[in-house]
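ok, trying the design again with the full structure, not the truncated one.
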C-alpha cells in the first residue's frame, strides 16, 4: 500500500448553493426571450389557421359548386358580426341560400376554430364575413390584422391579405419601418 488516504470528492453545500444561484440567474435571463418566442409562434400559428380556413372555404366552394362563407363566431355555430378586435374564433360553412348571415338548416359547418389564445385579437378592415362563390371568387378584399398584447402591439402584428379575386398572401414590411403593410400598402393598425 502506498499509504495515501482516500478523499471524498463531492460538492460542499456552499458549492451547491453557488451553482443553484447561477442557474437561477441564467434562467431569469432566458425566460423573457423564451416568452417572446412562444408569443411569436402563437401568432404565426393562428394566422396560418385563418389562412387554412379561408383556403378551405375557397376550395370547397369550387368543389361543391355553391357559396362557402367564413365568419367570426363566438359560439362556433352562428356568425357574430364584426371581426373588429375580436378574439372569437371562426366558422367555415356551406351557405346554400347565399344569405351570408348564419348557418341555416341543412347548411354544413366545414371547419371550426375556437377563440384565439394568448389575448390575441383579430381585425378585418372590410366586413364581418367573406364568401367564396362556386367559381372560387371572393366577395370581399381586405386585410386581416392579428395583434397581441405586447407593447407596442403594432410592432408584432401579422397580416393576411385577401385580394379581390379571393387569393391570399401574408403581409410584409416592404419599407423596413418595423410595421407590416396591409393590402392598401399602408401600415396595419392594432388600435
Amino acid at each position: 500500500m502506498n499509504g495515501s488516504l482516500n478523499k471524498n470528492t463531492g460538492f460542499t453545500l456552499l458549492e451547491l448553493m453557488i451553482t443553484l444561484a447561477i442557474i437561477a440567474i441564467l434562467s431569469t435571463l432566458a425566460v423573457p426571450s423564451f416568452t417572446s418566442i412562444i408569443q411569436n409562434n402563437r401568432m404565426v400559428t393562428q394566422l396560418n389557421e385563418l389562412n387554412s380556413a379561408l383556403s378551405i372555404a375557397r376550395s370547397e366552394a369550387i368543389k361543391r359548386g355553391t357559396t362557402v362563407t367564413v365568419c367570426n363566431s363566438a359560439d362556433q355555430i352562428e356568425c357574430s358580426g364584426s371581426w373588429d378586435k375580436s378574439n372569437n374564433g371562426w366558422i367555415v360553412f356551406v351557405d346554400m341560400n347565399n344569405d351570408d348571415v348564419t348557418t341555416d338548416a341543412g347548411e354544413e359547418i366545414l371547419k371550426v376554430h375556437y377563440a384565439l389564445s394568448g389575448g390575441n385579437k383579430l381585425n378585418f378592415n372590410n366586413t364581418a364575413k367573406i364568401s367564396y362563390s362556386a367559381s372560387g371568387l371572393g366577395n370581399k378584399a381586405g386585410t386581416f390584422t392579428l395583434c397581441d398584447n405586447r407593447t407596442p402591439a403594432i410592432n408584432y402584428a401579422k397580416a393576411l391579405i385577401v385580394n379581390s379575386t379571393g387569393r391570399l398572401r401574408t403581409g410584409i414590411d416592404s419599407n423596413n419601418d418595423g410595421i407590416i403593410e396591409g393590402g392598401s400598402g399602408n401600415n396595419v393598425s392594432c388600435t
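Keeping the full-length input from now on. The chain is about 25% helix and 20% strand.
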